Request: fold
Amino acid sequence: MDLHITPPEGTRDRLFAECLERRQVQAALVELFRRRGYAEVITPEMEYYDLFVRAGSPLPQQAMLKVIDRSGRILVMRPDSTAPIARVAATKLKGLPLPQRLYYDQAVFRLGDAHDGGSTETAQCGVELIGAVGRKADVEMVALAVDALHRCGVEPFHIEVGHADFFRTLAARLELSAEGVEQMRACIEGKNYAALNDLLAGVAPGSARDALARLPYLFGGVEVLEQAAQLAGPCKSLDYLAQLYEELDEAGYGRWVRFDLGLVHQMDYYTGVVFRGYVQGAGRPVLSGGRYDKLVERFGRRAEATGFAVDVDAVGSCLEVEPPRLETVIHYGQGALYQALQELDSCPPGTCELSPCRTLNSTLNLAREKGAGRVLVLEKTGRRWLEV
Amino acid sequence: MSDRLKIALTKGRLQDRSVALFERMGLDCTPVKDPGRRLIHQIANYPLDVVLAKAPDVITYVQHGVCDLGVVGKDTILEKGGAFYEVLDLGFGRCRFALATRRGSDFYGTYKTRRIASKYPEVTRAFFERKGMDVEIIRIEGSVELAPILGLADAIVDIVETGATLRENGLEPIEDVAQVSARLIVNTASMKLHKAQILDWIGRCQQALAGGTEREKGG
Reply:
């Protein structure tokens, strides 16, 4: 019989340091979110597939891990937490006054490509601010994103902010088919300068065309907002971002905030300010979020919302956490258990353990095998230290 | 934090053309041209380290952020996909993907499900999906031209440069699938974290490319 006892592809066992990293990041984020008035929700690990279809989830179907329930309906392992929380906000929390500040600390499941080194299960910590519209809410969210990465202790990092409407406004000035707009969006998202120029070659010259051609380059410090305004002319979304920056800068957040006006991913989902967090050492964004004003409404309650999620393990892997080393083994005799436990509890976690051995000789062997430097012998007659 | 950029070059023909481009940009590429057993080569007069890799690995290294930049053919990008910025068409390594059949056969003139052999199953799948055609795709690792000759497939999708190999084997290209050339790709996080350096690099490439074409035109 060929029984598989290894974890399935895309899943993994996490041991020691990896667990410490994950827990350290989770603890830092949860502490911050609670301090800022966010309350925890835990949603089911499995949901109906329909939920994510209704949410207009940008994830392709093949990225969702499916299960069939007893009645034959398709379930998926939760591929993101925002859609379930939008559902909760629109149904169970219907009677509560808005805004609601919610946070989650739970895994999401997404199937990646084979042999890509990616994990199907991703630990995420995130927040959703539901029922708040306008600049104050957006400022609060970007500031929280900065604080989140700051508290995790990963430096250098920055939060990059864009606005879904900037691209929409420019694209609307050109007379393009929906397909043409989508092609252009894909080129801008991929910073595919060559293909974008080919697409724009067929478009009437003007400020919108010039701005679109430069869009993949329009990322960096606050100066890109001015560059964009020179190219595109006055634009509400640019003014909005400039004011957003001014407020963030005034509060001391300016040095972590940058802009990318070419941040045009998931355009059907995001409706306003969008942002991502980058950390030195991680090859992809470790934080992602933005404003999604239409999502909660899809579940029956009008509520504008914004939020973000942190990829906990991606942040964790940028930290260098040393697991504790065993230093002391305690050998205790008849009647010395209480004393032994007192000693054990007073040591830093992971540096001391009790010996289950009956004889001192076995304990010494055990200590040697485990690499502990010394043995503490506790007997009714007294205590002594033995070097190993 | 290292101040040096790391670039992955596709080994072989694209490597030679990339090195020629870098030399036009004024880079001292001696270590890359005489690699010996070293796997990472430092450019002495520019903060750049070069690694040589097989085409699909170039994408893998860039996507995971262990290399900031990469030079790879559009054929590999189309086949493998991935999340990175494709910033520049380097213009060299030009060829095309074409659909080819045995000379004189009528590929579209039947309702039978056709069988296509290719080293590029993903490119083939996407091409026929756009056409709304169901086809059977068979992955072949070596000389794809053999498949229609032996009667395994009705057609092939493959890289065509001059078409000489096809002609010699009684095959002919009947339709272009996609144009191919070498591309400069950039890791998404590197682009953000080393903006000035990477844009400087892209600008130098563009300048050298523009200079090169002018000279070709002049000559």
Remarks:
- Chain B touches chain A through 23 residues (CB under 8 Å).
- The two ends of chain B are 45 Å apart (CA to CA).
- Chain B is about 40% helix and 30% strand.
